[in-house]
Amino acid sequence: MDIINLMKQFDFSESETKVYLTLLQNGILSGYETARLSGVARSKVYEVLANLVSKGVVRVNNQDKVSYYQAESSEFLIEKLRLNTEKALHDLSLATNFFQPNEFNDQLWHMSDYQAILLKTQQMIEQAEEEILLHIWVEDLTDQIQEILLRKEKSGLKIVIILFDLDKKYTFSKKMKNCYIHGFEEEKLEERHQTRWINLAVDNQEMIYASIKDCLTAEATYTSNKSFVFFSREYVQHDAYCLRIEEKAMPELKAIFGENLIGIRDIFKSFE
């Protein structure tokens, strides 16, 4: 994303961004020089400069009949935007605390933004009080989610995780008591057309299931419908049952069912 579009997210117009960058690159300039170098019309540039001064990211020095302008550093700009954003979020939090959400119902709610899906997953884990059952791929296991899971386990919550890692590193599994390695990632991705997923059930009360192609293509369903929560929990529990058996008896299972346990996994084929 280019700088102009990024700055628009912080309420800077295209002209304001052009003028700020021109001053940043060229140092102290008059209004006339700023217009010439930035491409912003001279009839408009003084209004733009005044806006930037009022936003605190450009300084002005009035000498005789000529005003000169200088941009604050990019570090100053970033810090000011950060402080403004934090204050706005704080004020918004205070304002919205007055409004309390209605009780959850059992409707199915659709989500289609990857970051929103991760945030909802993180929020559900953070608010869990009794148990967390989770399928997740390492690509979606953010540092924040890892930290919360470790903290929740330490506080005594019952947690079961089925972890998928195409690189077979499974680093996080070594940090948790009941984090099982799935081990059939390639086959699952092939079955699902290279789409990974998150399946999370919390406190036997709510669940989210997400299909994730990449950070731009994702969709999820969230609900507190008891039937969907039941199937979400069963999905994780069933995998945990199987993986616990594999951990203890893999050599014997391979001898009976073959490499990759194909004799078990091909459910449409009768045992010989």
Automatic annotation (TrEMBL):
<dbReference type="InterPro" id="IPR036390">
    <property type="entry name" value="WH_DNA-bd_sf"/>
</dbReference>
<dbReference type="InterPro" id="IPR036388">
    <property type="entry name" value="WH-like_DNA-bd_sf"/>
</dbReference>
<dbReference type="InterPro" id="IPR021586">
    <property type="entry name" value="Tscrpt_reg_TrmB_C"/>
</dbReference>
<dbReference type="InterPro" id="IPR051797">
    <property type="entry name" value="TrmB-like"/>
</dbReference>
<dbReference type="InterPro" id="IPR002831">
    <property type="entry name" value="Tscrpt_reg_TrmB_N"/>
</dbReference>
<feature type="domain" description="Transcription regulator TrmB N-terminal">
    <location>
        <begin position="7"/>
        <end position="69"/>
    </location>
</feature>
<protein>
    <submittedName>
        <fullName>Sugar-specific transcriptional regulator TrmB</fullName>
    </submittedName>
</protein>
<dbReference type="Pfam" id="PF01978">
    <property type="entry name" value="TrmB"/>
</dbReference>
<dbReference type="Pfam" id="PF11495">
    <property type="entry name" value="Regulator_TrmB"/>
</dbReference>
<feature type="domain" description="Transcription regulator TrmB C-terminal">
    <location>
        <begin position="107"/>
        <end position="176"/>
    </location>
</feature>
